[in-house]
Amino acid sequence: MKHSEAKARILDIFNKLDHVRRAEKGERHTQSFVVEKLSNGSSIIIYFPGYKSAPSRFGGYTYDYRVDLMLPREDAFQTTLSHVNIIMDLCSKCLYNPSLKPDMITILNDLYHHGTSGVSVRYNHVYQHSKVSEQLINEAQKTHIRLGKTYNKDGNRFDLTFEELFHSILWISLQEDLNYPMPRFEGRRMSFSRYLESVWQIDNSHTLSEVIDRALSHSRPSEWSGCNYPPKLRE
Predict the structure, then answer these.
(1) Which domain holds residue 184?
(2) Helices within the chain (DSSP H only)
(3) pLDDT (tens digit, 9 = 90+) per residue, 109-152?
(4) Which terminal CB of the chain, N or C, has fewer other CB atoms within 10 Å?
(5) Helices in 17-82 by DSSP H: which ranges?
(6) Is residue 226 situated within a structural domain?
(7) Following CA atoms 34, 38, 40, 43 in sequence, which dihedral angle do they give, to the nearest 10 degrees?
(8) Residue 231 domain-assigned (yes or no)
């Protein structure tokens, strides 16, 4: 699915289920919709309206929603995924299988430009189980505590298949395109920059904790020298 197709789909859902009116009434996460069912039976579900749903100070409207993943393979376990959960899963996979790193960067760039319709997102790698280690979990936990924030450990209780990971990225990063569209703003470029950093930092002079810190920042982090960032697009 292309980014434009996902955007049109989710706006249609919001219009049909009265996202704006429900937000004005003070409803929070009262509506849910399965936006995608994956080949292994896992479901990507959105819940809305979110806490930040409101008219935007830049004009237009801020559509806030959360993205959940339901895993039938784990007794229908369901959890909310955040940018940090994605960062952790990406880093874990590349630490477990270092040969995956260059291909993961290629896939992320392809996903950034073409969505899940991209050729390289057809998962050329055989999926290898690589549960996120306690060491990484502890690093994320400490970073969140230092920043006065809460880390959803359940979002990394199980490692994601490639299909679950890449398709979740599509729906999570879409929120940035809806509310902060390129080229005036950063759109999904902001989240994809952090995803790419989570892989790049493994062999460079930065840390996972720094990437998490930057993902949780309300400012626009400066780019790291040597890391290849995606271009800002006109869409």
Answers:
(1) 3-216
(2) 3-16, 19-24, 83-96, 101-114, 134-146, 162-179, 188-200, 208-216
(3) 999 999 998 766 666 556 677 889 999 999 999 999 999 999 99
(4) C
(5) 19-24
(6) no
(7) -20
(8) no
